[in-house]
Design goal:
Number of helices: 20
CATH architecture of the largest domain: Alpha-Beta Barrel
Bound molecules: ligand C2E, magnesium ion
Distance between the termini: 71 Å
CATH class of the largest domain: Alpha Beta
CATH superfamily of the largest domain: EAL domain
Shape: elongated
Largest sheet: 8 strands, mixed, barrel
Number of domains: 3
Radius of gyration: 30 Å
Strand content: 15-25%
Length: 475
């Protein structure tokens, strides 16, 4: 009964083991009832004990397939015990770009090197237990007063030198993940899953090439990301993405001409979560496609339900991640959403941030289709990336939005090149919007150098749609 109740915590082979040894005992008992003279109960008991041994006690279960060392199952057992004693410290370690290394230098060489790394760590630090979790990922743990900082440091130093195995020399990079507080992770399985995810991310990092690692990823950070992914999934599944609108005004007249749609989601307590937290995760997990579709759908519903011209609105800006454009059917999906709401694309401008501008050939197809449909494009956050004008001209931008950092530094007496940049951009036909306008003085400075449109807290913060409508509906 106890096992049945706790079956969720069992692995599949353990559940099968429970079924198998209970079946053996049941068969023994049935035989005893049906044929009391045949003494086979002992045999069935032996079978049950053998099953229990192979399922739970067999030491080979805790050794990884390539026999490099202890495996995930072993770590799980040790973590369960450590959690009970509340004495947990796990250090994860990932070989950087493991899969690429296998392709570039060959699987056998990498495997041999992994074996020698395992051997070196176990010999150098006899007081810790080392596990190999596959794909270049390790975990180490141990009780008592272990100087993890020292271990970390010595492994890093070792990785600055090449690994030599049977005549081959390999330079490998390494990154670490530390768990010393479980930050809400309450079972061995959830710790291992989060650790694997963290190690996967750490291992894909390309910031340094060889040897020393730059930093250590905290498990708390990864846990936050996992929770944020769950939250996003929930919000998207329930179609609960909200859109706030921030006005964009004409420079000279200060009249409302447009608005930027900004995505908002709420956590389970109803508090707003800022896009800086969920947009990067949406992009990383591919949820950005659905998020973008729901934002567009909300904006289209707003456009079709209100008389935008009476508010003075000539267009609505929507942020578009180039990662959405990598999807081959994105333009069709957008077209379907517009059709559902009976909205035409001429009212919608798509903003792409300068930092996220990627190789145009990857997104060209979808951008061209969107342009043919009648969408216009704005370059967002100009001044935060490294794009040059030649590269910008690949994209069909009609408008450039100066990032608030650029606007601020100009208003603080720096950024002397901004006036010539603006007039240069205008001379080739771009219109200019200045973002982050918070004071009258900033507004005047930017109008003086030729900004056509202004956006910022001076005019309004982003507002929920109904509040925006109430504020800007005249009469
Ligand atoms: P963004 O597109 O550059 O949007 C402008 C951001 O600046 C908004 O932040 C806005 O609230 C803020 N802002 C506007 N005026 C002022 C000001 O005067 N002072 C200051 N300090 N801030 C101002 P928010 O809403 O937090 O959005 C952050 C970023 O998240 C956006 O930057 C955009 O890149 C991204 N984002 C938002 N919604 C979406 C979306 O639906 N899809 C995609 N792909 N990205 C989105
Ligand atoms: Mg924007
Ligand atoms: Mg911006």
């Amino acid at each position: 009964m106890l096992l049945l109740r706790r079956r969720q915590g069992l692995l599949r082979h353990e559940r099968n083991g429970v079924l198998a040894y209970n079946a053996a005992l049941l068969a023994g008992n049935t035989m005893r009832l049906l044929l009391p003279r045949v003494l086979v109960m002992d045999t069935f008991c032996t079978i049950a004990i053998t099953i229990i041994f192979f399922v739970y006690m067999n030491p080979h279960l805790f050794i990884d397939q390539r026999r490099i060392g202890y495996n995930k199952r072993g770590l799980r057992l040790l973590l369960s015990e450590a959690l009970e004693k509340d004495d947990l410290h796990v250090m994860g370690m990932a070989i950087k770009n493991y899969q690429q290394e296998r392709v570039v230098v060959g699987g056998t060489r990498v495997d041999r090197t992994i074996e020698s790394i395992y051997a070196w760590i176990t010999q150098s630090f006899s007081h810790i237990v080392l596990f190999y979790l596959g794909s270049g990922r390790f975990a180490m743990t141990g009780g008592g007063n272990i100087d993890w900082e020292d271990i970390h440091q010595r492994i890093r130093e070792r990785f600055e030198k090449p690994w030599q195995t049977e005549g081959s020399t390999l330079h490998l990079g390494v990154r670490f993940v530390n768990i010393n507080e479980t930050s809400g992770l309450d079972s061995a399985n959830s710790i291992i899953n989060t650790l694997l995810l963290a190690l996967e991310r750490a291992g894909q990092d390309s910031s340094t090439t060889f040897g020393a690692c730059q930093d250590t990823l905290s498990i708390g950070e990864v846990y936050e990301q996992v929770m944020m992914t769950h939250m996003l999934e929930r919000v998207l599944k329930n179609h609960e993405v909200e859109v706030f609108l921030q006005p964009i005004v004409q420079g000279a007249s200060r009249e409302l001409v447009g608005a930027e749609a900004l995505a908002r989601i709420r956590d389970e307590h109803g508090s707003l979560v800022p896009p800086s937290l969920f947009i990067p995760i949406a992009e990383h997990t591919g949820l950005i496609d659905e998020l973008g579709a729901q934002v567009l759908s909300n904006v289209c519903a707003f456009i079709s339900a209100h008389d935008l011209h009476s508010m003075g609105l000539k267009w609505i800006n929507i942020n578009l991640s180039p990662l959405q454009c990598v999807q081959h059917d994105m333009a069709e999906r957008f077209a379907r959403i517009l059709e559902q709401h009976g909205v035409t694309p001429d009212m919608i401008h798509l903003e792409i941030t300068e930092q996220s501008i990627i190789d145009y050939s990857l997104v060209e197809n979808q951008i061209l289709q969107l342009q043919e449909m009648g969408f216009k494009f704005s370059l967002d956050d100009y001044g935060t990336g490294y794009s040059n004008l030649v590269r910008l001209s690949d994209y069909p931008f009609a408008n450039i939005k100066l990032d608030m950092s650029l606007v601020r530094s100009y208003c603080n007496g720096k950024g002397r090149l901004l006036p010539v940049t603006v007039s240069g951009l205008k001379s080739v036909g771009y219109t200019i919007t200045a973002e982050g306008i918070e004071t009258e003085e900033m507004a005047e400075n930017l109008i003086d150098i030729g900004a056509d449109y202004l956006q910022g807290y001076l005019f309004s913060r982003p507002l929920p749609i109904d509040e925006f409508v109430r504020t800007y509906t005249t009469g």
